TrEMBL record:
<feature type="domain" description="ATP synthase F1 complex delta/epsilon subunit N-terminal">
    <location>
        <begin position="34"/>
        <end position="113"/>
    </location>
</feature>
<dbReference type="InterPro" id="IPR020546">
    <property type="entry name" value="ATP_synth_F1_dsu/esu_N"/>
</dbReference>
<dbReference type="InterPro" id="IPR001469">
    <property type="entry name" value="ATP_synth_F1_dsu/esu"/>
</dbReference>
<keyword id="KW-0999">Mitochondrion inner membrane</keyword>
<keyword id="KW-0375">Hydrogen ion transport</keyword>
<dbReference type="InterPro" id="IPR048937">
    <property type="entry name" value="ATPD_C_metazoa"/>
</dbReference>
<keyword id="KW-0496">Mitochondrion</keyword>
<keyword id="KW-0809">Transit peptide</keyword>
<keyword id="KW-0472">Membrane</keyword>
<dbReference type="Pfam" id="PF02823">
    <property type="entry name" value="ATP-synt_DE_N"/>
</dbReference>
<dbReference type="Pfam" id="PF21335">
    <property type="entry name" value="ATPD_C_metazoa"/>
</dbReference>
<keyword id="KW-0813">Transport</keyword>
<keyword id="KW-0139">CF(1)</keyword>
<protein>
    <submittedName>
        <fullName>Uncharacterized protein</fullName>
    </submittedName>
</protein>
<dbReference type="InterPro" id="IPR036794">
    <property type="entry name" value="ATP_F1_dsu/esu_C_sf"/>
</dbReference>
<feature type="domain" description="F1F0-ATP synthase delta subunit C-terminal">
    <location>
        <begin position="119"/>
        <end position="160"/>
    </location>
</feature>
<comment type="similarity">
    <text>Belongs to the ATPase epsilon chain family.</text>
</comment>
Length: 162
């Protein structure tokens, strides 16, 4: 180990001189500009919010101003938006993406989205039942994969509606 340290010691100054030029400075803001849109509706259009909680395949996580820049895929579930006036909105998403930029702006783009308060529990159960039926009768790999996705969305939809 000591011979390794002696062998790299002459090049270490080169790395330390380059380091400041490699590190980028982020322009974090104290507020978070938020946009949330789906194919059927724009829920928020570049407004300031306190916090957003999103479901992702890497685990649900909260977004606050000064969050590290991130790109994530949304899984079926509920996005909760905490507004500056103290209120909050819960919006069900089937899938989509969330982008957190270095200026603290956040964009959620959903394939399908609906306010949780507008969900119908019996209709959600029907969606799940139909998806489960399609999964059990699927004969090709593609049909099985599509039905499995529909079941995942249906389960999340029922959970959100209850």
């Amino acid at each position: 180990m000591a011979s390794f340290v002696r062998s790299i010691r002459p090049v270490m100054p080169m790395f330390s001189r380059r380091l400041p030029s490699v590190v980028a400075k982020r322009n974090y803001a104290d507020e978070m500009a938020f946009t949330f849109a789906a194919a059927n509706q724009v829920f928020y259009d570049n407004v300031s919010v306190k916090q957003v909680d999103v479901p992702s395949f890497s685990g649900s996580f909260g977004i606050l101003p000064k969050h590290v820049p991130t790109l994530a895929v949304l899984k079926p579930g509920v996005v909760t938006v905490y507004e500056n006036d103290g209120g909050s909105k819960k919006i069900f998403v089937s899938s989509g993406t969330v982008t957190i930029n270095d200026d603290s702006s956040v964009q959620v783009l959903a394939e399908e989205a609906c306010l949780v308060e507008h969900l119908d529990v019996s209709a959600a159960r029907d969606v799940l039942s139909k998806a489960q039926s399609e999964l059990s009768s699927a004969s090709t790999d593609q049909a099985k994969a599509e039905a499995a996705i529909a079941v995942e969305v249906g389960e999340a939809l029922v959970k959100a509606a209850e």
